[in-house]
Amino acid sequence: MATEDCVVVDPEAAxxxxxxxxxxxxxxxxxxxxLNSYLEPARKALESLSEPTTATAVVEAFGSxxxxxxxxxxxxxxxxxxxxxxxxGGCLFGYVAFDGKVDISNGGSIMDGGCLEMPxx
Length: 121
Fold this sequence. Notes:
Layout: H1 11-18, H2 29-47, H3 55-64, E1 70-75, E2 79-85, E3 91-97, E4 102-107
Antiparallel strand pairs: 1-2, 2-3, 3-4
């Protein structure tokens, strides 16, 4: 069989394509500005939670700053991952550790939709 009849497989390219669902969509400048207006109030609300925090408390913290439409959480036993959608587009996402440390950022939704990739992916 001639090699030109064979299908070329690039395992690294295949793995990279398999991870595309994790990439975040681009934000417009207006979306980024809108998300930035929520960033510090949300950080303060999350930092004020009792330790250890719960997924329910994280959802309530986002509600207290006006983000109530779509808040995803994942309690992994060491803290709570979160993704909160803005009605104007984009997300606040991050992690609240059980010791109260908050890591929060903003960006577009992931390619699969929503603000937080599925656990285990």
